[in-house]
């Protein structure tokens, strides 16, 4: 067995890792768990100018001091400054143990409000809980459990309904502030108190205009009063007016916009749309095209490279156009991208203008170009993050010249993780347009995100779309890949029995097409799925019955992979064969497979899977009564998982080390190692529940033991 190291430790090893030559016995008292996320400070950045709201701020602050866990609902029409008020108020409060969290419920979004499970998954992930979440009720229960232990401050911004808010409420004891455009009577049952936010008083409205535009640009008091009246004293509209005065001093007076016709004869435009349209009139031709395109593409965030691809222009022109949108107040920066503002209204106004100005063919072409740009970027990230993922040909109707800067794995992951919110929008747009080719390619290219973030509910929905698209296309290889990915997602949700028929269908197709690589892959997945059925915890060996059923599939998968020269695939199958042979009682054969797997995986620098082979080697040593040897092996594997950043496997290896400590008679170390394992398992509710039960039992055993 290769450990890629010549360090030797004999005796028991319990605690942190130490690199040295030969040590006879080593005991260290700390077993460091995986790092937890930092305390969150997610509230939006407060605005530079915040005027008047003293009365409501004082009232809310007083009520929060007296009843900090009461829910408060701030309601008003759009543009009154609800989010600004909430942000200023909550930022001033002491930081609670769980931090300050923020969720945009997207009540006014053009594509509908946010899904409650998606919101909960992101909130839980920010506290270190990765899932998987089987459904909304499970996620909500864990959300309440997490926030009961560590109370938070939570801003739920732009709520659409009371039901949406109720689904994501934390446990009692946290401070919750909700913003919405209408009253939410359904929240009264949970003790919520409503507060209406009105327009700015005249003096404060005039002051805000002068602060934002510059006093020299509003030197005429009559013109300033006319401007704030046309803006209905709403801070958002005053900000738009100030941006117009800064960028286009010769623009026509704002009060004229109120009499403009509606974009559609049968509709009455709201005042925000009128003001957005008035700002649009001041844009250059390039800026106007960029604004319409931003309302056309199926993404809430637009970058310069994406816009360049959509408008068939160069990167410098796209950057200038986006900068113009930001200067005129029509878009706001979010990281390296821009979002049209205000939420919902901005995209809707831009989409209406695009529909009036551009031909249906052009709009369709722009949506396609945006999705193809995104697919090309996903593919670049995929090559960095999952170089062993089977590469399938990508098809584009338009060449993609400019993409995001993804020069390293770190850059690729930073970009890809930020795209999670765009997935549902992109796939829904591709499905609506009937672009089956884009559907399956996007789902396939998202493999690194699925594998690392594990948003299972979203992943399953995406796989169902992709499998349907693949069936319509009629490409056997594509269908097999999508069936395979769908099965992996189901197995990750601990539904191996549901996954098995998908892998079996994929195997039948591979046999029909005489695809040896595909056959080896699907046999491997069938074997992996069979040994998961009836497995209670990830440290259990499969039952003898399941192992016997899996063995012929895994043996054939290994033979085929060896035949086609897929060395890494052989090694990954060997890890499963190690478990199967151990379950069947042939421990020597099991260890031989695991040793071969580790050597091969180290040779191709697959350090994570090499550590998995080492961990299973230690597990089987423990099962054969070699507790001291198992402790050394598992300690080494844990240090490798820590270096690789694999929290789930660190947790499992710590749990196995607790078993080794117990078998070696070091009962005083068992509770410590289980506690470290529980902290590392914090992202997985299923395993955390199991570890909590084990920890309680171990504590009881320790208390009842000899003094």
Task: Outline the fold blueprint.
Blueprint: E1 8-9, E2 13-14, E3 22-23, E4 26-27, E5 40-41, H1 54-66, E6 71-75, H2 82-91, E7 99-104, H3 116-126, H4 136-149, E8 153-159, H5 162-167, E9 175-180, E10 193-196, H6 202-213, H7 221-230, H8 235-247, H9 271-281, H10 285-296, H11 304-311, H12 315-327, E11 331-334, E12 337-340, H13 345-357, H14 360-385, H15 409-417, H16 423-433, H17 436-445, H18 447-453, H19 456-473, H20 476-492, H21 496-513, H22 516-532, H23 544-563, H24 567-583, H25 587-603, H26 607-623, H27 627-644, H28 647-663, H29 667-680, H30 685-704
Parallel strand pairs: 1-3, 2-4, 5-7, 6-9, 6-10, 7-8, 8-9
Antiparallel strand pairs: 11-12
Helix pairs in contact: 3-4, 6-8, 8-9, 9-13, 10-12, 10-13, 11-12, 11-14, 14-15, 14-16, 14-17, 17-19, 19-20, 20-21, 20-22, 21-22, 22-23, 22-24, 23-24, 24-25, 24-26, 25-26, 26-27, 26-28, 27-28, 28-29, 29-30
Estimated radius of gyration? 29 Å
Strand element count: 12
Mean pLDDT level: 84
* Overall form: globular
Low-confidence stretches: 3-34, 253-268, 703-707
- From the N-terminal CA to the C-terminal CA, the straight-line distance is 40 Å
Q: Largest sheet at a glance? A: 6 strands, parallel
Strand content: 5-15%
How are the strands of the largest sheet arranged? 5-7-8-9-6-10
Residues in helices, as a percent range: 55-70%
Per DSSP, the total helix count is 30
Helix and strand content put the structural class at alpha/beta
């Amino acid at each position: 067995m290769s450990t890629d190291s010549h360090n030797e430790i004999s005796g028991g090893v319990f605690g942190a890792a130490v690199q040295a030559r030969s040590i006879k016995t080593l005991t260290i008292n700390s077993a460091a768990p995986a790092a937890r996320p930092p305390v969150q400070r997610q509230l939006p950045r407060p605005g530079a100018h915040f005027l008047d709201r003293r009365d409501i701020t004082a009232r809310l602050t007083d009520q929060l001091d007296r009843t900090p866990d009461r829910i408060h609902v701030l309601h008003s029409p759009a543009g009154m400054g609800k989010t600004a008020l909430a942000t200023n108020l909550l930022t001033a409060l002491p930081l609670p143990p769980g931090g300050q969290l923020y969720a945009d419920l997207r009540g006014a979004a053009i594509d509908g409000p946010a899904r409650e499970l998606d919101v909960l998954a992101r909130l839980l992930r920010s506290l270190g809980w990765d899932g998987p979440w089987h459904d909304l009720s499970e996620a909500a229960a864990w959300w309440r459990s997490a926030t009961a232990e560590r109370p938070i401050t939570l801003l739920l911004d732009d709520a659409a309904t009371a039901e949406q808010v109720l689904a994501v409420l934390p446990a009692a004891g946290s401070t919750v502030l909700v913003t919405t455009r209408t009253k939410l009577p359904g929240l009264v049952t949970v003790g919520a108190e409503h507060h209406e936010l009105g327009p700015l008083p005249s003096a404060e409205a005039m002051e805000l205009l002068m602060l934002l535009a510059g006093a020299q640009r509003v030197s005429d008091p009559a013109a300033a009063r006319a401007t704030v009246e046309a803006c209905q004293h709403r801070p958002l509209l005053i900000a738009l007016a100030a941006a117009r005065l800064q960028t286009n001093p010769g623009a026509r007076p704002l009060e004229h916009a109120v009499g403009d016709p509606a974009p559609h004869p049968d509709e009455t435009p709201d005042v925000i749309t009128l003001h957005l349209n008035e700002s649009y009139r001041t844009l250059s031709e390039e800026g106007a095209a960029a604004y319409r395109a931003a309302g056309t593409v199926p993404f809430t965030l637009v970058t310069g490279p994406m816009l360049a691809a959509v408008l068939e222009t160069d990167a410098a022109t796209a950057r200038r156009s986006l900068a113009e949108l930001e200067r005129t107040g029509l878009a706001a920066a979010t990281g390296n991208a821009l979002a049209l503002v205000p939420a919902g209204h901005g995209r809707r106004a831009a989409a209406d203008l695009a529909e009036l100005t551009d031909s249906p063919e052009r709009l369709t072409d722009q949506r396609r170009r945006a999705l193809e740009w995104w697919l090309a970027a996903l593919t670049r990230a995929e090559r960095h993050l999952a170089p062993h993922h089977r590469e399938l040909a990508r098809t584009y109707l338009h060449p993609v010249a400019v993409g995001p800067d993804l020069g390293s794995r770190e850059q690729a992951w930073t970009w890809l993780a930020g795209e999670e919110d765009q997935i549902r929008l992109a796939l829904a747009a591709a499905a609506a347009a009937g672009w089956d080719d884009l559907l399956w390619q996007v789902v396939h290219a998202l493999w690194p995100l699925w594998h690392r973030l594990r948003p299972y509910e979203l992943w399953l929905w995406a796989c169902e779309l992709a499998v349907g698209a693949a069936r319509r296309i009629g490409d056997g290889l594509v269908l097999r890949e999508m069936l395979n990915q769908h099965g992996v997602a189901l197995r990750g949700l601990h539904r191996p029995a549901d996954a098995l028929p998908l892998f079996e269908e994929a195997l039948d197709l591979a046999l029909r097409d005489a695809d040896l690589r595909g056959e080896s892959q699907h046999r491997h997945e069938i074997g992996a799925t069979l040994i998961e059925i009836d497995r209670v915890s990830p440290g259990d060996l499969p039952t003898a019955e399941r192992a016997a059923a899996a063995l012929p599939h895994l043996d054939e998968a290994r033979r085929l992979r060896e035949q086609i020269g897929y060395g890494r695939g052989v090694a990954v199958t060997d890890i499963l064969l190690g478990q199967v042979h151990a379950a069947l009682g042939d421990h020597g054969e099991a260890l031989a497979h695991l040793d071969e797997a580790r050597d091969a995986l180290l040779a191709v620098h697959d350090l994570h899977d090499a550590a998995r082979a080492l961990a299973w080697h230690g597990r089987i040593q423990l099962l054969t009564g070699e507790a001291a040897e198992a402790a050394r092996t598992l300690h080494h594997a844990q240090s490798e998982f820590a270096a690789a950043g694999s929290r789930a496997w660190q947790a499992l290896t710590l749990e196995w080390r607790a078993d080794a400590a117990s078998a070696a008679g070091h009962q005083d170390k068992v509770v410590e190692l289980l506690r470290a394992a529980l902290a590392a398992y914090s992202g997985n509710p299923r395993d955390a529940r199991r570890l909590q039960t084990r920890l309680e039992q171990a504590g009881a055993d320790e208390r009842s033991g000899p003094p």
